[in-house]
Design goal:
With 399 residues, the chain is of the alpha/beta class. The chain has seven helices and 19 strands. InterPro entries: At4g27190-like_LRR (IPR057135), LRR_dom_sf (IPR032675), Plant_NBS-LRR (IPR050905).
């Protein structure tokens, strides 16, 4: 059989081709350098080429990252891609969109690791509204030994309960916990019905990156107080209007590796760290973020402080950049006091690159207080009038 070779083709995208039925005819087609394949909105496409038995040895290579994306496909295409005649030994990224036959095909796989043995990134998109819980038949994809990143977008899961199917439909939550501990990155975007990230004490204990965006029904805390993030390096929460207190103080104390924190446009959030209740005269509990270098608080219209409890002091030995933008209610950073020896500026605008736009009043608490006065001139004027009748008023708060 005549062979057709594309020796240097490394990316192939087939998109919005409503009449395309096949790519290739009788020829055996090889893509020795292909590292990325994206097929979307090709409803008549039945096969990428006619002889599927040989593609598994030619898609992808050892150099770079291989990727395939499947969204809005005719069911026969996904069936072809999950065929037992086809393997992706070098594929590192799988973008999987929903279709009606997915469950049956995944149940038909003997072992997902036979097909995706090097898969590192799994992206799941556009799962239908009737799927309120993460489907257990997807668990074998999460079980892949080299999987590092899970990305879920545009789905209607109410809760991320990751469980495998056992014999007779029995669940194996312990196995799920072990599998999820391998993941180092979790990205959740546009999960409009999601009310809980997870309930288990453990599950994502080795996460380094957590990005949560457009999940408006997340309530109260981002995660339960029992959750620890001892390996987390980047935390980003964007457009999550249901969260009121980001994390409990017990979770905050586990963030020893955190380097970047971005909390953006979460309109109901009142404080970042939920403090413990107790006697104000008791010994204060110190919470240290030893590696936190960047803190961004943007568009938090109800934020009143980083932590409102006077029972906690904070240490930021590495903090060098703080951006506080459009947070009109924040009056002070930490009620219990803080130490940030490397910090000498606060940027009131994320676009403020010029030094003259930075603000610094000797300490982070004092700088936040100045910003509050600038953002609320009418309220500050009223307070000034009231204080004229009480000349003994002064501020003794630790900064």
């Amino acid at each position: 059989m005549k062979k057709m070779v594309f020796p240097k083709l490394d990316r192939l995208t087939l998109e919005d081709l409503p009449k395309l039925k096949r790519f290739g005819f009788e020829n055996l087609i090889e893509f020795p350098s292909l590292t990325y394949l994206h097929i979307e909105k090709c409803p008549l496409l039945n096969t990428v080429h006619s002889d599927s038995t040989s593609v598994g040895t030619t898609v992808g290579n050892e150099v770079g990252e291989s990727s395939i994306s499947m969204e809005n496909l005719h069911s026969d295409v996904s069936k072809y891609l999950f065929s037992e005649k086809l393997a992706f030994p070098n594929l590192q990224q799988l973008h999987l969109g929903w279709d009606d036959g997915m469950k049956e095909r995944l149940h038909g796989l003997r072992l997902a690791s036979d097909y995706f043995c090097k898969l590192k990134v799994l992206r799941l998109v556009r799962f239908p509204q009737q799927l309120a819980i993460f489907p257990s038949y997807l668990f074998q994809l999460l079980s892949l030994p080299n999987l590092e990143s899970l990305q879920i977008e545009l789905c209607y899961f109410e809760e991320l309960v990751f469980q495998s199917e056992g014999v007779g439909g029995e669940e194996k939550p312990a196995s799920a916990s072990m599998v999820l501990s391998r993941l180092t990155e979790l990205r959740l975007s546009s999960l409009y019905e999601l009310m809980h990230l997870w309930k288990e004490k453990e599950g994502f204990q080795n996460l380094r990156i957590l990005h949560v965006e457009c999940c408006p029904k997340l309530k109260s805390n981002l995660v339960p107080s029992s959750v620890c993030f001892q390996n987390l390096m980047t935390l980003e929460v964007v457009y999550c209007d249901g969260i009121i207190k980001l994390v409990a103080h017990s979770t905050a104390k586990s963030l020893a590796q955190l380097r970047e924190m971005r909390i953006i446009y979460c309109r109901k959030i009142e404080e970042i760290i939920e403090g413990s209740d107790g006697d104000r005269d008791e010994v204060k509990d110190e919470i240290i973020f030893p590696k936190l270098n960047l803190l961004e608080l943007i568009g938090l219209s109800n934020l009143e402080s980083f932590c409102s409890s006077a029972n906690h002091t904070f240490g930021f030995p590495s903090l060098a950049t703080v951006i506080v933008e459009d947070c009109p209610k924040i009056k002070t950073f930490a009620q219990g006091g803080l130490n940030a020896p490397m910090l000498h500026k606060v940027r009131p605008d994320s676009w403020a690159d010029e030094r003259e736009d930075w603000i610094w009043e000797g300490s982070l608490n004092s700088t936040i207080q100045k910003l509050f006065k600038e953002w609320n001139p009418v309220e500050e004027m009223q307070n000034s009038v009231e204080d004229q009748g009480n000349p003994s008023t002064f501020n003794t708060q630790s900064t």
